[in-house]
Amino acid sequence: MRPGARRARGARGAAVVAVLAACLAPAGCVQTVAGPAPKQDLVALLLPESKTSRYEMIDRPEFEKAIAENCPECRLVYANAGQSAARQQAQAESALSQGAGVLVLDPVDSVAARGIVEAAEARGVAVVAYDRFISEAPLDYFVAYDAGRVGHIQGTALVEAVGTDLAPGEGVLLVHGAPTDPNAAVIKRGLNEALWGSGITVLAEYDTPDWSPDASQQWVESQLTVFGDRVVGVYAANDGTAAGAISALRAGGLESVPVTGHDAELAAIQRIVAGDQLMTVYKRIGQQARLAAAIAVRLLRGEEPTADLLVGGVPSRLLQPVEVTRENVRSVIIDGGVFTVDEICTPAYRAACADLGLLEEGR
């Protein structure tokens, strides 16, 4: 954030008409929109998509509850962009036209989102980048998990599972996240740090459009036609792409190949219990959502939230993720209140749960 940017916003405030003129491909340029002055009781939460279950199951409800607790008089505008940058731009337009005093923005496309942040700045509206950073934009705050740490945890787990005593021609496939997601690039850097010097050969790698499980499955299937059983491990950037990769491996008769994950979705936890997925990375998303809500309320009231560090010059809080494997499913996921035994140990997984000692005596 530019020095004094927040003070400058407050000085301009409602005197400046918000402009949303960012050129989006393929949406084109959005027209200038005028609206009322920012209100001191209105917060907007703009999330990117709903394919990943966490957004509607955790982020939204936890954020809503925290807003109600921290600011009972506040109102919330909520919108989900469904993975469309153009739709998110229109949703931001709507929130600003309603007089939102703070935008909490998880961008579909971090480049396109710069226009949203600049329009908010022109109106005197603070912006909290949530979960994904927006570079070269006048942000007020950034709240997320340490994406580099996520990639390093995943890469370390893959190296340990695959080992370094590989036959000539054997190696791993890397299924990265969406190229429009800045977190995907940071996760990739953490992964590369873990793989560096391991001696493991990367056979091929892929940036998955929209984090799509279907795209992941199709790509892994195509690589198996090239490499076959020389694939001894698959790095998958999240649990959705892991699901696609695992489906492809099963179809190719390679059920024992280790596959990483990230997000600790229920289906992934069940796959880990069953031995179908190597690991995932758990982020206390509820904690992140509640923290973002508290920061949004402080900004709405004109207060200066404390920060742990600066990311790109922006005051930030980066939370620490946790690895989840078969060995710590109980301590991290069940004892941590993420999912219950009943939710995990459905009939298809009861035998695997029993093997892990997750079922209580007599159940």
Textual characterization of the structure:
- There is one protein chain.
- The termini are far apart.
- Helix content is 41%, strand content 17%.
- Helix 3 (85-97) packs parallel to helix 4.
- By secondary structure, the chain is an alpha/beta fold.
- Strand 1 and strand 2 (28-29) form a beta hairpin.
- Strands 4-3-5-6-7-13-12 form a seven-stranded mixed beta sheet, with helices on both faces. Strands 9-8-10 form a three-stranded parallel beta sheet, with helices on both faces.
- It has 13 helices and 14 strands.
- It has helices spanning 5-12, 54-70, 85-97, 113-123, 147-162, 182-195, 213-227, 239-251, 266-274, 285-300, 329-334, 341-344, 350-356; strands spanning 23-24, 28-29, 42-47, 75-80, 102-105, 126-130, 141-145, 171-176, 202-207, 231-236, 280-282, 309-311, 314-319, 322-324.
- It folds into two domains: 5-139 and 284-319, 3-Layer(aba) Sandwich (Rossmann fold), CATH 3.40.50.2300; 147-283 and 325-356, Rossmann fold (3-Layer(aba) Sandwich), CATH 3.40.50.
- Mean pLDDT is 89; it is low at 1-33.
